[in-house]
Amino acid sequence: MLFEGEHLLPGRIGHFFVILSLIASLIATIAYFKASRTTDLTDKKRWINLARITFITQLVSVLAIFSIIYYICSNHYFEYMYAYKHASKELEPKFLLACIWEGQEGSFLLWTIWHSILGLFLIFKAKEWEAPVMTMISAAQIFLALMVLGIYFFGIRIGSSPFTLTRNELEGPIFGMPNYLSFIKDGVGLNVLLRNYWMVIHPPVLFLGFASTIIPFAYAYAGVQSKRFGDWIKTVLPYTLFSVCVLGIGIMMGGKWAYESLSFGGYWAWDPVENASLVPWLILVAGLHTMVIYNATGHSLRASYIFSILSFVFVLYSTYLTRTGILGDTSVHAFTEKDEVMKIMLILFFSLFGMLLLSLFFINYKKIPAIEKEEGTNSREFWMFIGSLVFFFSALFISAKTSVPVYNKIFGTKIAPAEDPEFSYNRVMVLVAFVIGLLTAVGQYFKYKSTPTGYLLKKITLPTILSALIIALLAIFYPITYYKQGSGFLGAIYIALFASIYAVIANAAYIWTGLNGKLKAAGPSIAHLGFALMLVGMLISSGNKKTISDNRVTGINIPFGKDNKGKDLENPLENLTMLRDVPTKMLDYKVTYTGDSAGNEKGRVYYQLHFAKQDSSESFTLSPDVYVGRNELKSSNPSTKRYLTKDIYSYISSINPQSNNDDTAQFVIKEMAEGDTAYYKKGYIILNAVVKNPDNGKYHFKSTDAALMADITIVSKDSMHYKAYPVIQVDPSFTTAVEIDDTVYAQNLYFKFSGVTENRKIKLGIKESDKIIDFVTLKAYLFPYINLVWLGLIIMALGLMMSMINRAKIKTPLAAAILICIFASMFFMFFIAH
Fold first, then answer.
1. Which pLDDT value is given to residue 289?
2. End-to-end CA distance of the chain
3. Can you say whether the dihedral through the CA atoms of 269, 270, 274, 277 is positive or negative?
4. Percent of the chain with pLDDT over 90
5. What does the DSSP assignment read for 416-448?
6. Beta-carbon neighbour count of residue 327 at 10 Å?
7. Would you state the pLDDT for residue 496?
8. How many CB atoms lie within 10 A of CB 349?
């Protein structure tokens, strides 16, 4: 059958490039492997030239695949399943780009592109390490190419192609018609939860971080394969710093996205997908510090191997967790497609790479140089190694708790999640923060190999006293108010906060005294200072986070339903229900729900919430939005008022389910003179006056206009007073009259000025609506000092990049340009863009 309107050529070209990228990766892997094993220089050069040509061919192929997918999505070729599932005609160009990596295939392709770009860089920079390092990167490309292959092999589909046709994937009578495309009016489009500018920025940065972890992994392989067991450390240090920086930024971008655009009530919820990205970063940080130890003293080479290997293996494991649907019931943003073949492929991917490198490591374990003499407890390397172990074991703890669904699946167990999942992580990680804070504060004052006790005490005395003084002042004048988990946990927060403040002060002091203000060598201390400042921000903003939407003010409780354990999904007392146009007290503000408006996307509604200080010193409007389907709230995005020292964060937790229903009530006309009273079901109405050409806060007519306004007071049965001001205006030609109606939403009353009678009474139209009173339910928090988190991240990233530039010996002008660009772009993203 010949189907009408199909554009099959882009898909055929795209599929050709998928196959080409797989073949090119396979040849590049073989060629690089052969080059790494041969000692004949002519033979090695020939193999490397072949490998380079095929690797670059693979790079061109994946870029072509990406471009073709964007072409298909942007042109709304819904004959392709990928475009139908992820694109739609209402999406802006930036979201048409982002919809590519919404799907499994696109995200694997993004990962492949970053591997290719990093590989191209290494081709020019790796020199004698090129062959063994690129062997690993090319081998990884084979697996990633298989993920988007979509070819049947003995009845089993290997991978999932982005170029499959909709009619081959979906069942329905229309797909047997030649003109089936005429029935497909639009695609499903990007998930409403993902329609945010962070969807354009966050995944590419995060996947660059994931992809970059293969570089230390590949160099570890190169070190074992070439028997140059320790030579690779100095070379890989700048790449490791880059990876720690980019992956850390990518993770916290996800936190910023959650804070700005998802109603999680914060930036981190210990969601399994968040955890899966954090674990490789923690292991990589541990590996970075052991590499620095080896580079300075010769200790910790074996630990550097282990951490370099496991950081990439845990990236692959996190991919398994988030891409196979195994976390579908425990994570709010994991992929839930249960593709058994993809699951097996991912298991093979991380198992083979992990087993290969770990086997090579243990086979050569005794050959890897190790200094038999233990590090002294008064040496910097000893405490750096302890810090690395703390990072590593905290990563294992997080991974173990996150992997509970995997245990249950494999062993048939029924391990239930903790009653309070967040606290089950926090009670351990708050102690980790304490230990890391202390080590970060004191560790740098130690010297390598041995440190005189007097020297150490002299250097840390002032930072210790200042930190103790600050924590004491905080406890008196700005105490932590997190009493939910008892005094023991509150005490743990205080000691972690002390350690974090201590780390900030001690690192700042070290830059000034230990380095004499030499910023070129201050990268590690700046990074430590930024990390500690993040911890301070996290502890204060979470410890003094306050729910300010107190529903006892109105007493209108909206049911939120139960979870699968029978617990309330939301606490009604913490969700403030507000009637339209009725000011409601919140802290020292009067908050008024003034109305709603439709967004550009279908089903998106913005709610206007006007905040005004009771002393009239400040006012602002927040516009949280929701996606509505079938009169139900599908998702909610917060709106935030930012201050230097706090954020007021609010989101819509419930809407009026019948707000869009038709109103069947009719206006009743009453003739009234000034001072007359009319009654309605819930009270009475007084016509105070009829004002000619009013000029007030609501209307601004001129003396030459022809307008009349009815000044009306409404008194309800509970003695509440409301005002309404309907207007009638005659146009300058005196041919037509324009009626400007007014509404009292709290009483469901509508008023219109319908005219004037011969005996000088006014015709007042009154309608008592049959609709449910328009309301909205709001949840709001106050986050104090949240900006310390984002500022700390920027400072940490700058410190890491400074260290990278210093280790890589990049010349000063270029280094300055890189740092300025990083600082400007991150400052824009975290403080200005939204």
1. 97
2. 50
3. positive
4. 55
5. PPPSSHHHHHHHHHHHHHHHHHHHHHHGGGSPS
6. 26
7. 97
8. 21
Position 10 confidence tier, pLDDT thresholds 50, 70, 90: very high
Measured from the Cβ of residue 493, the count of other Cβ atoms closer than 10 Å reads 21
Q: For the chain, how many residues are written?
A: 834
Tokens representing residue 159 in the block:
């991978």
- CB of 196 within 8 A of CB of 260? yes
Distance in angstroms (rounded) separating the CA atoms of residues 50 and 46: 6
> Under 8 Å CB-to-CB from 82, ≥6 apart: which residues?
69, 72, 73, 103, 105, 106, 162, 163, 164
Residue 263 pLDDT more than 70? Answer: no
The answer to whether 561 touches 569, Cβ cutoff 8 Å, is yes
Selection from 601, 549, 544, 598 nearest residue 573 by Cα:
549
* The pLDDT of residue 431 is above 90: yes
- Kindly give, in sequence order, each residue whose CB lies less than 8 Å from that of residue 370, ignoring residues fewer than 6 positions away: 299, 301, 302
Owner of token pair 């699968």 = 564
Q: What is the mean pLDDT of residues 783-790?
A: 94
762-768 and 749-756: which strand pairing? antiparallel
Residue type, 523: G
Mean pLDDT score across all residues of the chain: 88
pLDDT class of 823 with cuts at 50, 70, 90: low
Q: Residue 800 is encoded by which pair of tokens? A: 């890491």
Tokens linked to 378: 């008064």
Residues 109 and 62 sit within 8 Å (Cβ to Cβ)? yes
pLDDT digits (tens, 9 = 90+) for 480-493: 999 888 999 999 99
Q: How far from 247 is each of 171, 244, 277, 420, CA to CA, in Å?
A: 41, 5, 8, 28
| Burial 50-68, CB ≥16 within 10 A → b, else e | bbbebbbbbbebbbbbbeb
**Which H/E stretch holds residue 780?**
strand 775-784
Separation CA 512–CA 507 (nearest Å): 9
Q: Please say whether the beta carbons of 259 and 283 come within 8 A.
A: no
Provide the 10 A C-beta neighbour count for residue 426. Answer: 20
Q: Which residue reads 């408006």 in tokens?
A: 597
HSE-CB at 591 with a 13 A cutoff on CA atoms is 27
Written as one letter, the residue type at 201 is: I
- Which residue in 373, 364, 374, 386 sits closest to 302, CA to CA? 364
C-alpha dihedral sign at 68, 74, 79, 82: positive
pLDDT of residue 834: 47
3-class secondary structure, 685: strand
150: alpha, beta or left, given left = phi > 0 and alpha = psi -120 to 50? left
Q: What is the pLDDT of residues 198-240, one digit of tens each?
A: 888 999 999 999 999 999 999 999 999 999 999 999 999 999 9
* Per-residue CA distances from 684 to 338, 663, 740, 744, 797 (Å): 62, 22, 22, 13, 64
Structure tokens at 529: 């200072």
Residue 47 · residue 115 · CB < 8 Å:
no
Kindly state the DSSP code that residue 548 receives in the 8-state scheme: -
Instruction: List strand residue ranges (DSSP E) for 580-706, in order.
Output: 584-586, 589-598, 604-613, 619-622, 625-629, 632-637, 639-642, 646-655, 668-672, 677-680, 683-692
Q: What percent of the chain has pLDDT over 70?
A: 91
Residues 69/14, Cβ–Cβ less than 8 Å:
yes
Q: Say if residue 332's pLDDT is above 60.
A: no
Q: Which residues contact 756 (CB under 8 A, 6 or more apart)?
A: 708, 762, 763
Instruction: Round to whole Å and give the CA distance between 379 and 299.
Output: 12
Q: How far apart are CA 428 and CA 421, in angstroms?
A: 12
Residue 610, phi then psi, degrees to nearest 5: -95, 120
Q: Sorting pLDDT into bands at 50, 70 and 90, what band is 293?
A: very high
For residue 459, which phi and psi values (nearest 5 degrees)?
Answer: -75, -35
> What fold does the segment set 1-190 form as a domain?
Four Helix Bundle (Hemerythrin (Met), subunit A) (1.20.120)
